[in-house]
Amino acid sequence: MKRWVCCITVALGLFVTRTEAQDQQGGYHRVACIKVKPGKEAEFREFVAGAARKFFQSSADSGEIAGWFLARTVIPAGSEAGCDYVGVTLFRDLPRPPLGLEEIDKGLKRAGVAMSASEFVAKREEVSSLVSANLWRQAVAAGVPPEKGDYAYVNFMKVHSMHDWMDMENNVWKPMAASFAKGGGLRGWSVNVLVLPSGTDTKFQAVTLDVFPNWEAAFKPLPVEDTFKQVHPDKDAEQTFEKLLKSRDLARRELIVFEEKVVPAR
User: Fold this and answer.
1) Cβ 5 vs Cβ 225: under 8 Å
2) Half-sphere exposure of 102 (CA within 13 A, CB side)
3) How far apart are CA 61 and CA 67, in angstroms?
4) pLDDT tens digit at each of 266 positions of the chain
């Protein structure tokens, strides 16, 4: 019995394919993996907290985007980390295409940023480099969205049985995550499906976020076994989690902290 508890504590989430998520998918979001140039950490933070944040706030207030987050990778860190920071741009419906200089210039003027689009892009490239930009879509969620200062585990999954994953997502994990969030141990949980790139060469098909309100909460074990019994009194835990272990592999797990959050002004 304890074996599955250990495994589930490692990954509080399951994932589904893009096709199977159609009935309950949320909005698209673009995820940018960013590396900071050597010796440019202070300048990068200044640029993000100033011009970049104002630009994204203006875009959210105008309805062009639904929101924006910037998260810093805590573990791993340094040259081993694939991303030093992750920028997440949220869209209500279809994602907008990448912006050209003309669109960026309009956004900067609207935001009151005293930079041209060329200057903005040059400064961004001076302090950082874009590793990748992928397109995702939220499939399932419980709890509430992250807040600035929240910590989150990012679980990258390789899925073997999509049918079993969908069943676990909707019927097992979502009510458990809602219970964790209600109890205050977990801020929120979501399943996010990779839209592009796609194909057999992708290293993983989906990601889950386990969001915690602080550092201490992120390292405090959740009452997985007790919550399962309370939420699913009619299910057999051993059989349920044996099914989970056969349906997926945890490819990688990382810890991030949310440093910026933009939502439309009320």
Assistant:
1) yes
2) 0
3) 9
4) 443 343 443 334 333 333 333 334 568 999 999 999 999 999 999 999 999 999 999 999 999 999 999 999 999 998 888 999 999 999 988 898 889 999 999 999 999 999 999 999 999 999 999 999 999 999 889 999 999 999 999 999 888 876 778 778 788 899 999 999 999 889 999 999 899 998 888 888 888 899 999 999 999 999 999 999 999 999 998 888 888 788 888 899 999 999 999 999 87
Find the length of the chain: 266
Q: Which residues contact 236 (CB under 8 A, 6 or more apart)?
A: none
* Residues contacting residue 194 through CB under 8 Å, at least 6 positions apart: 18, 134, 135, 136, 202, 204, 205, 206, 207
Q: Letter for the amino acid at 85?
A: Y
From 134, 145, 140, select the one nearest 20 (Cα to Cα). 140
Q: Cβ distance 167 to 115 under 8 Å?
A: no
**Answer CATH for 2-26+136-260 from 3.30.420.10, 3.40.50.1010, 3.10.290.10, 3.30.70.100:** 3.30.70.100
